[in-house]
Each structure stands twice: as structure tokens, then as C-alpha cells.
């Protein structure tokens, strides 16, 4: 019986060249599956983390605050140039030109308006310049969208 086994046997010894070679590669398929599941979980959970609380706000019966006779406008144009009133000024001279326009009164309200093309970061730089110059009362000017 052993002769029969040896001749037609499919049993291989350890050193047999027909053995499967050992591969040293990592199977990344389970890793990708786990990452896709995590991606789906975060895509579903992210909007839930930023849920706004719905509040029915009461209507305001207050009259809009009256604009001063001669408001001081600081305008940021699309090319990022700055104007105080109608006069173009550099970013470095913004504080001194505002001091001349307000006659040194730091508590006067400054009306800041900017073109739509001006980025949020550039507008914040101008607001920081106003704060550094001592002007803390800044009103943002926009169009009335109630029409």
C-alpha cells in the first residue's frame, strides 16, 4: 500500500518546490473596508453635530438707530484699497486719517463697508487695524434685503 501511495500521492514534503510561496504583502482590503465604514459614519454624524436650535424670534418694534449727520465711512474696494470718506489712504495711515476725521474721538462709530469681492480675511485685517487704532465701535454696512 505504501508503494501505491508514493507513486500517486498528492502529499508533498516540506522542501517540495511545488509548495505555495509565502507572500510578505499586507492584505489591505479589510483596512479599506473599515475606512469606508468610518467615512460613512462621519458623513452621517457630521451634520448632526452642527444642528441649529430652531427659535422663533419676536419681531422688533424699535426704530432703526438714526445715522449721524456726517457718518465716517471706511470703504474697502475690490482691489483692497481703503478709503476714509472719499480719500484713499494706505493701511498704515488708516489710524491717523481716522483720527483726523473723528477729531480724535475714539468712541465715535465707524461705518465699515466692503465690496462683495473682498474676502473675509481681508475685511478682518481692516477691522483689526481699526481696533488697533482704538476704534471699537464699528458698524458693518450692507444693502437692505427686505425688498
Descriptive report:
This protein is of the alpha/beta class. 34% of the residues lie in helices and 13% in strands. The protein contains four helices and five strands. It has helices at residues 2-8, 29-49, 94-102, 120-132; strands at 72-76, 82-84, 87-89, 110-114, 138-140. A five-stranded mixed β-sheet has the order 3-2-1-4-5, with helices on one face.
Q: What is the molecular shape?
A: elongated
SS class: alpha/beta
For the largest beta sheet, what order do the strands appear in spatially? 3-2-1-4-5
Question: C-alpha Rg, in Å?
Answer: 36 Å
Number of helices: 4
> Percent helix among the residues?
25-40%
Q: Approximately how much beta-strand content do the residues carry?
A: 5-15%
Mean pLDDT: 77
Note the main sheet: 5 strands, mixed
Unreliable stretches, pLDDT < 50, 5 or more residues?
A: none
Order of helices and strands: HHEEEHEHE
First CA to last CA: what distance?
A: 102 Å
Number of DSSP-assigned strands: 5
Q: What's this, in brief?
A:
Helix content is 34%, strand content 13%. The protein is built from four helices and five strands; from the N terminus they run ααβββαβαβ.
Amino acid at each position: 500500500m505504501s508503494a501505491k501511495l508514493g507513486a500517486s500521492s498528492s502529499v508533498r514534503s516540506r522542501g517540495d518546490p511545488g509548495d505555495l510561496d509565502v507572500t510578505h504583502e499586507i492584505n489591505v482590503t479589510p483596512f479599506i473596508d473599515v475606512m469606508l465604514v468610518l467615512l460613512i459614519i462621519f458623513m452621517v454624524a457630521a451634520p448632526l453635530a452642527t444642528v441649529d436650535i430652531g427659535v422663533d424670534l419676536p419681531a422688533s418694534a424699535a426704530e432703526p438707530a438714526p445715522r449721524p449727520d456726517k457718518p465716517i465711512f471706511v470703504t474697502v474696494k475690490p482691489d483692497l484699497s481703503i478709503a476714509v470718506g472719499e480719500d484713499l489712504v494706505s493701511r498704515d495711515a488708516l489710524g491717523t486719517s481716522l483720527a483726523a476725521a473723528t477729531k480724535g474721538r475714539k468712541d465715535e462709530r465707524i461705518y465699515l463697508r466692503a465690496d462683495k469681492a473682498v474676502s473675509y480675511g481681508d475685511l478682518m485685517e481692516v477691522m483689526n487695524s481699526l481696533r488697533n487704532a482704538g476704534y471699537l465701535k464699528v458698524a458693518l454696512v450692507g444693502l437692505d434685503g427686505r425688498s
